Known about the structure:
Elements: E1 6-7, E2 54-61, H1 73-82, E3 84-91, H2 96-105, E4 112-115, H3 121-125, H4 133-139, H5 141-146, H6 149-154, E5 156-157, E6 160-161, E7 164-167, E8 174-178, H7 179-184, H8 193-205, E9 217-219, H9 229-232, E10 243-246, E11 249-252, H10 259-271, H11 284-292, E12 296-301, H12 306-316, E13 324-327, E14 342-343, E15 346-352, H13 359-369, H14 372-380, E16 387-390, E17 393-396, H15 398-403, H16 405-411, H17 418-425, H18 428-443, E18 446-447, H19 462-474, H20 482-509
Parallel strand pairs: 1-3, 2-3, 2-4, 9-12, 14-18
Antiparallel strand pairs: 4-15, 5-6, 7-15, 8-12, 8-13, 10-11, 16-17
Amino acid sequence: MKKKVKQAAVLMTSLSLLVAGCGSGEKGGASSSPNASSSPGASTAASATPAAPAKIRMYASDHSMPPLDQNDPNILFLEQKTNTDLDLVSLPHAQYNDQLSLKFASGDFPDVYQSWSGPEADLVAAGKVLELNALIDKFGPNLKKVIPKNAWDAVSVNGKILAIPQPSTYSNSVLYVRKDWLDKLGLQVPKTSDELMNVLKAFRDKDPNGNGKKDEIPFSMREKFSWGDNIFGMWGVNNSWTESFYNNEVIIQNIHPNMKPALSFIKSMVDEKVMDSEFLTNSRTVWEQKIKSGLVGMWSHTQQLAWQWQVDLDKTIPNEKPDVVAIPTPRGAGYDGPLGTRWSPIAKTFIIMKSAKNPEAIIKFFDWLVTEEGQLFSDLGQEGNAYKKENGKIVIDTAKMEKQASFTNIFKIHDLNEAVEEAKLSNPAAYAKVKAARDIGLKEGFVNESVGMPSVKNNYDIANQFLEAGSKIVLGREPLTHFDDFVKTWRKQGGDEMVKERTDWYNKNRKK
């Protein structure tokens, strides 16, 4: 089959993508939005005379990677397994939402397109998006089996499934600590904000890196409060875009009252000199260098890098015998709600247009991708190339696997395949560290109502206003009461309109 994998030209300047955070509902659980099913195998039925391949036109992000070659062997294999003729249009990641908007505005609709949340509200209102419940019940037994209820809930409005979601496990960050520092100083893993402060003070005063200098940085984060979410998360809020239903309103957490004790604690960290003095300006490079040089005792980062941090420190400070471990988020004083960071049940989504000529073929296409065979294929490619099986175990050629990252980024629609994850690390100790971090993440996190909601029309500069107000508070240039002034000002300048818009949608489509 002739391949028509295209890369669209860059038409507009780069804008941020809307990447939704956490969804509603509990983690895990069997699907209820389609009825649960345990039907094995691919959903397509064999026939004496094979039908002609179904044509599917798809828009997807290139994930900032080289576009797939038009004769990519994985594309050809995928078409063969799903009896499809795939026309993949790869759009540049940095302009993805803008490119979609341009195409949709001109009436150029695909059969299916990739997103990170539910469909745009205007597409739904215009009747462009196909409701999937009946199609998934009929043609998607493996989708129903593999994708959990919380992921379906995140892409459903009033019980109508409007997208096929890829479930997400690695959706919230965790705290990392130099356990060798804890052990050397005879300290336990902190479970409360007060215990955390005591640990950080010990890191500051007792020379845990053993170089005779008072150069330790007990805690570090990056510019604009980034990668500090587990500190905010001790009080159930995040600085990253997260919305909560609070006091009968859907509000962005930057204005949530629990931000006040979180900012107060960070100010105490600054005052006690247990916070990196450059925490508001650290670039990624500078921040990583501080950690890898053995100066930092604790930091927050993504779960899947639990082993990579260990590898990096083993290389840079081998004589210290570093031991990097993930720990649960301590509980903030006076707070008894959920801890950690915003949690999203989905990583990406695929939305099918009502104009699609073969919607059942699209469902079957994704249904095959979540079979065991499809999972191994979308993770690792064809057997015999990037992986093989020896004595029932998967053995991976890492270099070859990395070459197919563009394909995996687009077509992986399952969450984690444990056999693949273990094989990727090929080291029991490595797998144990990553799994420990993931297990913590699975137990933590709080709902982000943003997931599945339409894009915000105008956020009234909330990020910059919060950064300015929060920075002044933690640096002691304004009292803690300045937070209340910031909230009042933002609401008066238009923030109330955003809150009303989000609350009205929530009450109409989600509130039970």
